[in-house]
Amino acid sequence: MTMTENRQNSVIGTRQLRREDPALLTGEAKFTNDLNLPGALHLSILRSPHAHAKIVSIDTAAAKASPGVVAVYTGAELQSQWAGPMPCAWPVTPDMKNPPHFPLAASKVCYVGDGVVAVLATSESASRDALDLIDVEYKVLKAVVDVEEALSDANIIHEDLGTNKSYTWNLKIEATEGCVEDAFQKAAFKVSERYVQQRLLPMAMEPRAVAAVPQPFGGDITLYSSTQIPHILKVMAALTLGIPEHQVRVVAPSVGGGFGSKLDVYAEELLCMALARKHSLPVRWVEERSENSMATIHGRGQVQYVELAADKSGKLTAVRVRIKADMGAYLQLVTPGVPILGAFLYAGVYDIPLAYDFSCDGIFTTLTPTDAYRGAGRPEATYAIESAMDALARAMKIDPLELRKRNFIQKEQFPYTAFSGLTYDSGDHLQAAEKAAGLADYAGIRAQQAKQNVPGAKKRLGIGMSSYFEMCGLAPSRVLASLNYGAGGWEAATVRVLPTCKVQVVTGTSPHGQGHETSWAMIASEKLGIPQEDIDVLHSDTAISPLGLDTYGSRSLPVGGVAIAGACDKVIDKARLIAAHQLECSADDLEFAGGVFSVKGSPDRAVPMAAIAFAAFTAHNLPDGLEPNLEAQYTYDPPNFSWPFGTHMCVLEVDTETGQIEILKYVAVDDCGVQINPLIVEGQVHGGVIQGLAQALFEEAVYDTDGNLKTTTLAEYLVPAASDVPSITTAHTVTPSPTNQLGVKGIGEAGTIGAASTVINAVVDALSGIGVTSMPMPASPQTVWRAIQSAAQAK
Amino acid sequence: MIPAAFDYKRASSAAEAISLVGQYGDEAKFLAGGHSLIPLMKLRLAQPAMLIDIGRIKDLSYIKDGGDFIAIGALTRHMDVEKSALVLKEVPLLAHAAGYVGDAQVRHRGTIGGSLAHADSASDLPATTLALGATYVAQGPKGERLIAAADFYKGFLESALQPDEMLTEIRVPKMNGAKWGFEKFNRRAQDWAIVGVAAWRSKDASGVALVNMGSTPILATSVSAALKSGASVADAAQLAAAEAEPQDDLNASSEYRVHLAKVLVRRALEKASA
Ligand SMILES: Cc1cc2nc3c(=O)[nH]c(=O)nc-3n(C[C@H](O)[C@H](O)[C@H](O)COP(=O)(O)OP(=O)(O)OC[C@H]3O[C@@H](n4cnc5c(N)ncnc54)[C@H](O)[C@@H]3O)c2cc1C
C-alpha cells in the first residue's frame, strides 16, 4: 500500500524551493577546491598528446629543477604504489578481456589524455609550469578511432589481449527456437536501420577535483573528491592502494554535477592518495576544463543496427539488435555494462512476443574511455526503437502515433512480464501519449503541415515523438548478480531523533545537484510529523554515513528515499512503545498523526514526539528491555527496478535554405509515480530534456583520424545555453509504483531518455516529404543542409 | 586554465601605455577588456611576459559626434556602443552588430578597440566597420596616423598596427538614413558567427562585408558593383563569396560557407532594400 492511499499527504507533493540553493547561489557552498589545506602539494599531470604510442624515454631533469617542484614521477616509478590495477566492477561475461589499467601509463599510451608523468609542487602554477619542461620521446603507432574498423584487429591496441574485442554479450529470447528469424521471414513490413550514438562529453559544471589528506597520527587517510560515489570509491581505493578499508575516509563536499562522469574511480584520486601517503602531506589536484574533455570519461559511443518485423497491421513481431559499443582505451568502473543496461529496452513500451535477439560487442579504441552518462544505455536503446518505429510508420505510410497506439502495452496488462523476464510494475502509455498529443496540438500540427510543407517551402514543419520506459532505481541486488555486476543495489538510511526532537537523516545517497537534502527532509517530515526545518540530512562522508551505494541510475529516491521512509517506520514503532508506556495503554490502541500519538477514541490522551524523544534520551522511564535513544537504521533492497515512462513531443521548423532548426514547442509528459517535490521533478525534466536535445542538435566529441580530440573547449564543444533551448511544457500522469511504500519512481534520467529521438524524429518528419529519411546526430545546420542536398540529388 | 607567469603594469594614459610598450618591446601586450587575450593566455597559446593594462584609461572611452562621422574611443565597451543613442541614430548597423557580440558579460567587458586590434575575421565588429568604411586612429611613439579599415586587416589575427602602436579611436561615417541588414548565423546565440554579413544600401551606394569567410574580414566588392550596375538583390547575392577564401572547420566546410554567404547576403540586402 502506498502512503498516498493511506491518508492525505501534507508535505509530500508540495512545490518547494530547494534548501541547498541559497548556499550554492551565493557561493557559500564549499567544493573540493575551496578546501583550505595548509602545506598541500599540488599535482599536475603530463598527458599523452598521442592516441597510440610507445613511451621510448622520459626526461624529467629540467622539471625537477623548476622552482617550487617537490617531486616528479613517471608511471614506472610509481608502479610499486599499486596493490592492483584500477577497478572495473562489471565483468559482463566470464571471458571479458580487461587490460591492466594503472593511474599512469608506464610503457605505452592508449589515448590522447592518458597520464604519463605526475608533478608535485608547492603551488598550482609551479606544478603546471613544470609540465612544459618534461621531455617525452614517443614512438607513435597508428590510432584506432573507428569502432567498426577496430573489430578487424588490423591494429591491436592491447597486444597481450590479442584482439580489440573486449566481449560479446548476447540476449536471445525465443518462444520457439528460430522464431526471430521466422518472424522476419514472414513479416509484412520490416525495417533495418543503422544509428550512431556519437560520443558526448558529460561536461559537469564543476570539473573533477581531489584532495588527499593523511592524518597526522596512524595510517588513516581522508580523500576529498568531487565524486558521485564516496562509498564505492572508499572500497575501491582501499583495494587499489592496499590500504585497509577502515583507514580510508572519503568525503564528497559540494559537487557541481556529475551526470555519471563522477561515477568512477579515477587515476587522479588514486595518485593523490598514493602521493599523500608517500610524502606524508596533503596532495591536491583540480582538473582544467580542456583536461576534463579528455581525462574524464565520455558518454555514448555506439553504433546500433536495429531491425523490426511487423505484421500487416503494424504489430511488432520481432526485434533484432546488434551493437558495436566503443569502450575507449580501457574499461573504467562500469564501462562494459552500459550498453547492457540498454539491452532490456530495445522493445520500448511495446507488447512484443518472445522473439528478441540482442548482441553487443564491446570494442577497444584509442580514445578516452567511455562510461555511464545520464541514462547510460537506455537513451541509446530508446533512441533506436523510437527512431525505428518512425521508420516503420513511414514504410507503412501510416501515422507514427497511430503505429505506437497499435503496439503499446495496454494499461490492463500491468504488471507486465516482458520478453526479458523483467516485470514492468505499472504504466499507462496511451494516456501519456494522448496527453502529449493534446498539449502539442498533434492534429492541428498535422493539418498545418499539409498546408505548409509544399514543394519549395523555405520553412518545413515537423512533429516528432518518443514514448519511453526507463529501467531505473538501480537495482535489485539479485538482478545485478545475474548481470555479473560486482556489488548490490540496496540503500541504507539512519533516522535519529535527538533529545530536543531535532532529526538527523543519514543517507547513503550522494547528491551532486539533485536536491536530496530537500526531498529527504520532506519524506522524514511527512512520516514523523516533525517540521522540515527541524530535520537535517547528512550525507557524502563515509565517516558520517558509513553504509551506502551512492547516486546514479535514478536510484536515490526509489531506493534511498524509500530506505529513509523505512527507517522512519522503525523509529515510529519504537516511539509507539514509549508512548504506550507513558499513556499506560496498549501500543495497538495508539494512532499516530501530525507527530502525536493518541489513544484511539480519546484524543486528549496524547503524547507528542518531542516528549518521547526526550524520554528516550533520559531513559529514566522506558519500557523494560527497551534500548535508550530514538534511532533506527534500515537498509532497503528494492524488489524490482522502477519504471517511469512518458511521451515527449517536439514541434520544429527547418529552414531548408540553411539547414537551421528552430524548435517551436517541446512537450514532456512524464510519469514518475508520486512526486515528492514537483518543483524538483520539473527541474530534473528540464535538465534532462536539454541534455537529450543537446545530443540531438549540438554536442559531439569530435576526433580526427589520428585520434586527436578537436572539441576541447566550450567554444568547440557546444553545450547549449538558456538562449539556445526552447521553453518546455511539462506535464505529468501519476501512476504510483506498487513496489515501494512511497509509490515513487526515478526521474533523474527520464528527460534525457526521451528527448534525443523526439527531436530527431521531428527533423526527419519535417523533411521526409523532400526525401530525407534519416538524420545523423548532432543535426547541425550543415548536416541538415547536406541531407537536404543529397536527397534532392537522389531524386 | 593557468597562464604562464607574466608581469603587469597599468597605464593611465595612451602616452604612458605607448612608452611602456616601447620599454618592454615584443614581450609586452596591451590588455583591454581581456576577453580575447585572457582565454588565449589560459590555453597558453599566448604567453606575453608583460601585460600593459589600458582598460582603465577613462578618456579613451567615449562616443562623440565628429561631423560626418561618429568618433568612438578605443576603450569603449561593446555594451556602450550597443546602447548609445548617438550610435543608434547615426550608425544603427554598428549598434545592432555590437548587440550581437557574445553575451552580456562579454559585451560589458570587451572593447571596440580590442575587437578590431585582435583582427579576428570571426568577430563581428571588424567586418561591420569595414562595411561602413570606417577609419581607425592609431597612436605610436611618432604620433598619430589614420588607417582605413580596408587597409587594416592583413591576415589571420594580423593587422596593420605596429607592436608599439595603440588604437585610440574609431571613426565611423554616418549612415545618413541608409537602410541596412545584419545576419549572424551560428549554432548557439552567444557564439561567433559561422558566417555573418553586415550590409547597408543607399540610393546609389552600398557596403557589404562578411564575417568568418577567410583569414580576414572580407569586403564583398563584387556584390556592391553588381548592385550599382542594376543587378537584382538575388543576382548580386550570388557573387557574395567572390572575394572570399573560406576555411573548413568543425561547424562548416568552405562549400557550405559559400552557400551560407549567398543566402545571408541576400537576406541582409533584402532588409536593406525594404
Ligand atoms: C565567450 C566569448 C564570446 C565572444 N563572442 C564574440 C562574438 O560573438 N563576436 C565578437 O565579435 N567577439 C566575440 N568575443 C570577443 C570579444 O568581443 C572581445 O572582447 C574582443 O574581441 C576583444 O576585445 P577586448 O577589449 O576584450 O580585448 P583584449 O582581449 O584585451 O585584447 C585583444 C587583443 O587586442 C590587443 N588590444 C586591445 N586593445 C588594443 C588597443 N586599443 N590598441 C592596440 N591593441 C589592442 C591586445 O593586446 C590583444 O592582443 C567573445 C569573447 C568571449 C570571451
Whole-number radius of gyration of chain A? Answer: 28 Å
> What is the tally of beta strands of chain A?
28
Shape of chain A: globular
> Oligomeric status of the shown chains?
heterodimer
The helix tally of chain B amounts to 12
Bound molecules: flavin-adenine dinucleotide
What report would you give on this structure?
- The complex is a heterodimer of chains A (795) and B (274).
- With 795 residues, chain A is an alpha+beta fold.
- Chain A has three domains: 32-141 and 207-255 and 262-295, Aldehyde oxidase/xanthine dehydrogenase, a/b hammerhead (Aldehyde Oxidoreductase, domain 3), CATH 3.90.1170; 302-474 and 640-794, 2-Layer Sandwich (Aldehyde Oxidoreductase, domain 4); 490-636, Aldehyde Oxidoreductase, domain 4 (2-Layer Sandwich).
- Chain A has 22 helices and 28 strands.
- In chain A, the strands form seven sheets. In chain A, strands 3-5-1-12-9-10-11 form a seven-stranded mixed beta sheet, sandwiched between helices.
- In chain A, helix 12 (378-396) runs parallel beside helix 21, helix 17 packs parallel to helix 18 (556-583) and helix 20 (678-697) packs across helix 21 (750-767).
- The N and C termini of chain A lie far apart (60 Å).
- Chain B has a five-stranded antiparallel beta sheet with strand order 4-5-10-6-7. A four-stranded antiparallel beta sheet of chain B has the order 11-12-13-14, with helices on both faces. In chain B, strands 1-3-2 form a three-stranded parallel beta sheet, with helices on one face.
- Chain B has three domains: 7-53, Uridine Diphospho-n-acetylenolpyruvylglucosamine Reductase, domain 2 (2-Layer Sandwich); 58-173, Uridine Diphospho-n-acetylenolpyruvylglucosamine Reductase, domain 3; 179-273, CO dehydrogenase flavoprotein, C-terminal domain (Enolase-like, domain 1).
- In chain B, 34% of the residues lie in helices and 24% in strands.
- Chain B has helices spanning 14-24, 37-42, 78-83, 85-90, 92-98, 104-109, 112-118, 124-131, 149-152, 221-228, 233-237, 254-273; strands at 7-10, 28-31, 50-53, 63-65, 69-73, 135-140, 143-148, 153-155, 158-159, 166-173, 179-185, 195-201, 206-211, 218-219.
- Chain B has 274 residues and is an alpha+beta fold.
- The site of flavin-adenine dinucleotide has 29 residues of chain B, from strand 2, helix 2, helix 7, helix 8 and strand 10.
